[in-house]
Each structure stands twice: as C-alpha cells, then as structure tokens.
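Continuing the batch. This is chain 6 of the set; chains 1 through 5 are on the previous pages. Same settings as before, nothing changed between runs. Recording input and output for traceability.
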Amino acid sequence: MKKAAIKAGQIALNLRECAINIGKHIGQSPTGSDNWDNKAYLSMADLSCQSNILHILGKDYRYCGVYTEEHSDQVNQLISYFSHKNCLIKDKYTFIIDPIDGSKNYLNKGSKNANYFGISIALAFGKNIIAGVIYYPAINTLLETRLNFGTYINKQRIIFNPREKISLNSPVRISSTMKHFYDYFPNNQNFGASCYNTLALLRGVIFAYFVKKTMLLDFSCMALAITEAGGFCGDIHSKPIKIADIIREEKGDLILDNFILLTSSIDNHRQLISQIQNKAPFSC
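Output for chain 6:
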C-alpha cells in the first residue's frame, strides 16, 4: 500500500504542475470562475492516481476486493481483476481507496490549504479496518497505521500524551454536518481535507475531531490511526465505537451515520462531552 500511495502522490503533484502550466499558457487558471474545466482536470488526476494504485496492488493482491468512488473504463478493467468491488465482504480483504482526498485544496495551489491533500488507502478484513496509509505528497509525509502495531509518521511512532488536557477553547475540527456545535468552540479549524484532520490530530494541531454522517472513504484510516496512537474514538456517551458496527449503505455509498468524537484519550473525550452538556444539553 505504501508504494502505491507514494507513486500516486507523485503523479498527483506532476499533474497539478502540468495543469498550472497549461493554464498560464492559455491565460487562465485551472481553478476559480475563469477555470478551463477544473472538473475534467480533477477527474483526470483522480483516475490517473486510481489506475496507478490498482495496477500496483493488482500485482500481488488480486484475492482482495476494491472499494472506491472513481471509475472509468480503464479503472473498471483493473478492478475486474480483483476478487470483488464496491462492497465489504465477511472474511475477505478489501482495499478502500481515495485517490485524492482534499480535492479543493489540490485544485487551489495558491490557497493557504493547498498542501493539505492526500492519497488514502486502507485495508479492511470484513468490515474491520486493519491497516492504512495516507501519503501527503505536497509535504512529503507518510502516515502508516496497522492494527496492534501502532501509528507512524515518516517512520516515527506517534503516541498521545495521556496527561494532555483540553477544553472548549482548544483548537478542534468540527465537520460541516455538525454546524450546531460551532457555537461551543471558538477555535474550530478547517483544513479542507478529511485526511489532513488525521495528521493534525496526531501532531497536536487540533485536539479533537467531531463528525457525523461521513463517507467511509473519508474516514477509513482515521479511527485506526488515532486509536493505535493511544487515542479514543467514542460516541456521545463516551463509549468506544467500532467502525464495523456503524457502516451502512446509502445510494451505493458506504456511510458512517453515528456521532463520532476522536480525542487523544478517553478522559478528554468525557471532559469535552461533559463541558458541552453543561453549556447546553444536546443530542446527536
């Protein structure tokens, strides 16, 4: 998975530079209101990365399945070599692939969040995520996580400080599906990419991540990476959440519909829930 993610990241960067050069040549930007069809450009980049990932994984792992959202004739041909597609099957392995997570950041190279995009590949056994990699090519950073083996950033193991304390004033990330929480946290951060929330939480840039109703593709590596670093993934009652238990299908997509709060420890999880409840009772 690591090799596939890194190679796809290099392709993504090269395509972005090509797009920018083409835009300059014709006097337009690949983004913004005067774009020269940024949707087509993003689709090309997505599918190019996707094809490369499938080609590399397909050499050794055709007994596995593939779950992804990007499709073309070439991609579908590559997927056909694998065991199954677009579903998670009991007692079978499935790769969950998001070729470019953070597409708006990827398109807008001039923005402050331009470097916050990544190539995400997770491996599930049945519905349980057992391993994952996210490569952030613009900052040359590789996140690796594996069940019972820990979480690593550029080969350095990450372990949360169990004594770290957080409050309502700490920097956090609240997903757009939970806007009613914005009033509770004056320091809500928005990086524009689900995959970067994982890195930000592991590095202490943010101290908690609130989300509800998110796609499995956007969340596949996150819970495992945080819990393998000693963090906590829990519900509104501070009970541990198993991602396998909350996956459901909606219009062909796999969705996580529950309230989820990720923090560096169960104590911080309980503290945040308690502080919010004290300000104004809520339900999710």
